[in-house]
Amino acid sequence: MTQRELQIERLFKLHYRAMYRLACILLHDDDESKDIVHDVFARLFMEHVEIQEDTAQSYLLLSVRNRCLNVIRNRRIHEQVHQYLLPTNEVEQTSPEELEREIEILKQGINELFPPICREVIHLHFTEGLPFREIATRLGVSETTIYKHLRNAIDQLRQTLKNAQQ
Q1: pLDDT attached to residue 110
Q2: What H or E segment, with its residue span, contains residue 48?
Q3: Which regions of the chain are under pLDDT 70?
Q4: Which of 25, 36, 87, 127 reaches 20 to 30 Å from 136, CA-CA?
Q5: Beta-carbon neighbour count of residue 166 at 10 Å?
Q6: What span, in angstroms and rounded, lies between the C-alpha atoms of 81 and 92?
């Protein structure tokens, strides 16, 4: 075993429990928490990230926290998309595989939105979580225009989903 592998193994033994506990607290999901911690160590190994002994725990816990926050953000985005695009009863009856398929269809649909400002409004509102006022300021248009483009984008995405289901 190389010196690098020994260092990572030692870090794993010392910090796994605290990292896993943090992930569980943030995600409330045992398997996903384990995956997050393992991803952090995989990144350390694959990207040859150098960690100082005195900052190792802080670095590892911060890495876990950031990955968990990304997972939570992605969950919220998925929930928002489904809240806006699908009737409530359809969401409850959708299998995880079907849900993933629909998400891929939506991603493709977002890339094909026309005019392009619709794509930008969807991104700013759902991915960055910006309110209409801030999007309007950023794009130099009125809030009403933002609302109309969002409505247009949602209608296009609904049609994309409808076409994919036929």
Answers
A1: 92
A2: none
A3: 78, 81-82, 84-94
A4: 87
A5: 4
A6: 14
Q: Choose among 76, 79, 73, 64: nearest CA to 24.
A: 64
How many CB atoms are closer than 10 A to CB 112?
Answer: 12
Is the pTM higher than 0.70? The answer reads no
pLDDT the model gives residue 91: 46
**Residue keyed to tokens 């699908």:** 86
In angstroms and rounded to an integer, the radius of gyration of the C-alpha atoms of the chain is 21
Q: Show the tokens assigned to 159.
A: 């049609």
Query: Distance between CA 46 and CA 14 in Å, rounded?
Result: 20
Residue 85, pLDDT score: 64
d(CA 64, CA 147): 36
Helix ranges restricted to H, the chain: 3-27, 30-46, 56-85, 88-93, 96-111, 116-122, 132-139, 143-165
Q: Is the peptide bond before 115 cis (omega within 30 degrees of 0)?
A: yes
Angle, vertex CA 89, rays to CA 113 and CA 147, nearest 5: 35
